[in-house]
Amino acid sequence: MTAMKLHGDTLSPFVRMCLVTAHEVGLGTKIQRDISRVDPTTVNAGLAAVSPVGKVPVLVTDHNHPLYDSRVIIEYLCHVSGNKTLIPDDGVKRFRVLTLAALGQAIAEAGVAWRYETAVRPQGLQWREWMDRQRLRVAAEFDDIEKNWIKDLAEVTAGTIAVAVALSYIDFRIPDWQWRTDRPKLQAFHDAFSDRPSMQATALKAA
Ligand SMILES: N[C@@H](CCC(=O)N[C@@H](CS)C(=O)NCC(=O)O)C(=O)O
To answer: What one-character-per-residue DSSP string does 47-112 give?
Structure first.
């Protein structure tokens, strides 16, 4: 039996969501890593060998099954560790948590797409209207969390992990988005959550 292997670096918020989950369920030290470079215009041969999608994260299980995407990996880590709190079984709680996780994922998606548009797409080909739309989208997402999700943010779940990691990604890559302005509750959540050992163990470092 080989160990589980996670493809992807923590600079990907989706990879980091999986790693934070692994730490929270006690599997943080059980996962090998492949952090070879992935970018949207080049085929990464190692990644292509385990996933036709060619995106990170991919988790190759100890039975040699490749799992993707991050949502599936997170559910798998909860399943194999027997954790019932990050994604609760109870129907009402479960779908609330999964929806909050989708909100965190959507912030991360917009952030990564923006990053590709501004840092990878050649100058002159950038699409201003599309970028404006991404900014409006994330602003609505931040406002919604500030208004409607604060109680949910008090618990450690797949939802709060996704939101905390997505906000850290924005801080790291797109600080101009200034999500803290007029959102004190979101800021307090992020400050407290960032102190968790799972977040500290996966903290982003400037190159
Ligand atoms: N929905 C996917 C998104 C994964 C994703 O977009 N990964 C990016 C890195 S953050 C990637 O691998 N990009 C490479 C590419 O677009 O070719 C998930 O949750 O895992």
So the answer is: HHTT-SS--S-EEE-TTS-EE-SHHHHHHHHHHHHT--SSS-SSHHHHHHHHHHHHHHHHHHHHHH
